[in-house]
């Protein structure tokens, strides 16, 4: 069993320091730096389990280490009160029952350094965010070898800067993927539901025709809900553009090979063409949401005319309104795309 024993990083200054005190910004940076050191020492190995003191600054240190190392979701940060106990017997019993090969313990002084002494027979000095690695052959003996001990130093600043940039880039990539998944799900769900509802509610078959009042109310409901989704999507687009811009800057700072994925994104003006139209994301959004809004508008006018029992403009009026809504939506999305490009966002950013 390999144990990484770490002291929590620097806490945020407060007049009332207690178990709820979070890490300071300096403490977070030190933690990320030490995560880089742990990662290099691990090589091909992976941390299987994380045990942390229940105090907030210790748990926050543990979460930062987990995130920086890119550990999977199944590796949880587990609270362990025995890390607060000056006696090491309870913690030893927990580790004896553990079948994991690489374990990270995050606690406080003097408990963490005392546990190191009990396991190895050596007195080790750990400053905040310091790490000690021990190969444990037998938890019942006190001669387990200390592999290495590291405390944060100013010499780690350059390495820390690179680690911070890499973590920022990874976080930005994850955020970008989440936004893309949300957009994809909305684009798959909204048109499907809307199209089905409009189709069913405007059938001319007497046995399947919808009650016009109910269809009118449902049409209004669908229109406003779709508008709400459009507003949400537009806000998401702002975050989407921000993630792209940030990723591009980070790729330049990290000097990514071949410029990086985001800097290598082709401009939408160089994209493929269909029926003479250049293909890009926002034009697709305009067509999908514009068509959906047009469908709900058709249902509203269609059912309204049925209520008035005016069958003369039965098809002409709702079709005209639907087309008007579609055209307005496409124009509005195009205007928004232009505004985003002027503000430094959009596909080319």
What does the main sheet amount to? 6 strands, mixed
Q: What value does the Rg take, in angstroms?
A: 30 Å
**pLDDT averaged residue by residue:** 81
Q: What is the strand content?
A: 5-15%
Number of strands: 8
Low-confidence stretches: none
Q: How far apart, in Å, are the first and last alpha carbons?
A: 49 Å
Order of strands, widest sheet: 3-2-4-1-5-6
Number of contiguous helices: 8
Count of the domains: 2
Oligomer: single chain
Structural class estimated from helices and strands: alpha/beta
Secondary-structure element order, N to C = EHEHEHEHEEHHEEHH
Helix content: 55-70%
Give the overall form. Answer: elongated
Would you give an account of this structure?
The protein is of the alpha/beta class and 349 residues long. The chain has two domains: 2-152, Phosphoglycerate mutase-like (Rossmann fold); 178-342. Helices cover 55% and strands 9% of the residues. The chain has eight helices and eight strands. It has a six-stranded mixed beta sheet with strand order 3-2-4-1-5-6, with helices on both faces. Helix 2 (56-69) links the parallel strand 2 and strand 3. The longest helix is centred in the middle third of the chain and has 45 residues, at 157-201.
What topology emerges from the helices and strands here?
Layout: E1 2-7, H1 25-42, E2 49-52, H2 56-69, E3 77-79, H3 89-96, E4 102-107, H4 111-120, E5 131-135, E6 146-150, H5 157-201, H6 212-254, E7 273-274, E8 277-278, H7 281-307, H8 316-342
Parallel strand pairs: 1-4, 2-3, 2-4
Antiparallel strand pairs: 1-5, 5-6, 7-8
Helix pairs in contact: 1-2, 1-5, 5-6, 5-7, 6-7, 7-8
């Amino acid at each position: 069993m390999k144990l990484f024993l770490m002291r929590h990083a620097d806490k945020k200054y407060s007049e009332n320091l207690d178990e709820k005190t979070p890490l300071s910004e300096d403490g977070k940076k030190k933690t990320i730096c030490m995560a880089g050191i742990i990662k290099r020492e691990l090589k091909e190995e992976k941390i299987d389990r994380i045990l942390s003191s229940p105090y907030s600054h210790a748990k926050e240190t543990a979460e930062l280490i987990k995130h920086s190392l890119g550990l999977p979701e199944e590796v949880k940060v587990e609270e362990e009160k025995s890390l607060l106990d000056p006696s090491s017997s309870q913690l030893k019993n927990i580790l004896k029952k553990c079948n994991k090969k690489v374990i990270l313990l995050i606690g406080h002084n003097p408990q963490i350094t005392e546990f190191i002494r009990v396991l190895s027979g050596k007195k080790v000095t750990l400053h905040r965010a310091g790490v000690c690695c021990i190969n444990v052959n037998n938890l019942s003996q006190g001669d387990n070898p200390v592999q290495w001990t590291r405390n944060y130093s100013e010499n780690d600043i350059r390495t820390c800067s690179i680690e911070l940039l890499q973590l920022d880039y990874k976080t930005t990539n994850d955020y970008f993927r989440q936004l893309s998944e949300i957009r994809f799900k909305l684009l798959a769900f909204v048109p499907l539901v809307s199209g089905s509802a409009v189709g069913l509610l405007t059938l001319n078959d007497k046995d399947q025709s919808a009650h016009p009042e109910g269809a009118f109310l449902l049409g209004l409901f669908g229109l406003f809900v779709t508008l709400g989704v459009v507003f949400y999507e537009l806000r998401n687009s702002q975050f989407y553009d921000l993630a792209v811009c940030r990723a591009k800057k980070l790729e330049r700072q990290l000097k990514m090979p071949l410029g990086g994925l985001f800097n290598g994104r082709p401009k939408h003006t160089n994209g493929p063409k269909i029926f003479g139209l250049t293909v890009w994301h926002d034009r697709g959004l305009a067509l999908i949401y514009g068509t959906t809004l047009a469908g709900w508008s058709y249902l509203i006018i269609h059912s309204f005319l049925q209520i008035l029992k005016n069958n003369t403009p039965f098809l002409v009026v709702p079709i005209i309104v639907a087309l008007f809504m579609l055209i307005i939506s496409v124009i509005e999305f195009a205007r928004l795309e232009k505004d985003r490009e002027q503000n430094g966002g959009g596909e080319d950013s």
